[in-house]
Amino acid sequence: MLGQDLRFLPAPFVLGDRLLDSQHDGLLECLDALKKLSGDSAAYKCNEVMSELTGRMAQHFDYEEAMMRKLGVKGELFDQHVAAHTEIMDEISHIHLTSISGGYGATDALAPKVSGWVLSHMMKFDLALKPLIDDANRRA
Ligand SMILES: [Fe+2]
Ligand SMILES: [Fe+2]
């Protein structure tokens, strides 16, 4: 059954593509790890989680954009979605640079901020892909 192995992705966010959904689940797993950081090693571990998140995100955005092309998404809809991905990657890289040059500062402020970017992106952009994926699945 689709979605069964997804531990972090809430059902309304399941889009119906196995790899895409498991990638989203993996991003939420990182956000969960970020949220749980505390104590003395928080800054070090935060760096680790952020590296993991950045890597997974880059991979995920590549796949999602290739999928959008395959689904025939084009024009403004495609351009705005890709621009939103680029913006998130820029923000994440900025945080990474900050971490290299002297720590994240308030680690507890980071988790809600990064979660906010990812979740609002999924709601605003990724959920719009669901009907197209459903359609493609029905045809397959
Ligand atoms: Fe997206
Ligand atoms: Fe996505």
How many DSSP helices? 5
Q: What gyration radius follows from the Cα positions, in whole Å?
A: 16 Å
| CATH superfamily placement | Hemerythrin-like
What is the level 1 CATH name? Mainly Alpha
Tally of discrete structural domains: 1
What small molecules does this complex bind?
Answer: fe (ii) ion
Q: What fraction strand?
A: under 5%
Q: Tell me the number of strands.
A: 0
Based on the coordinates given, report the CATH architecture.
Up-down Bundle
Which residues sit in consecutive blocks of at least 5 with pLDDT less than 50?
A: none
CATH fold call? Four Helix Bundle (Hemerythrin (Met), subunit A)
Average the pLDDT over all residues and give the rounded result.
Answer: 88
Order of helices and strands: HHHHH
Q: Which structural class matches the secondary elements? A: mainly alpha
Q: What is the percent of helical residues?
A: over 70%
Distance between the termini: 17 Å
The largest pleated sheet is described as:
none
Written description of the protein model:
With 140 residues, this protein is mostly helical. It has a single domain (20-35, 42-139), classed as Four Helix Bundle (Hemerythrin (Met), subunit A) (Up-down Bundle). It contains 5 helices and no strands. The radius of gyration is 16 Å and the shape is globular.
Structure at a glance:
With 140 residues, the chain is mostly helical. The chain is 74% helix and 0% strand.
Strand and helix map with partners:
Blueprint: H1 18-36, H2 42-71, H3 75-100, H4 107-124, H5 130-139
Helix pairs in contact: 1-2, 1-4, 2-3, 3-4
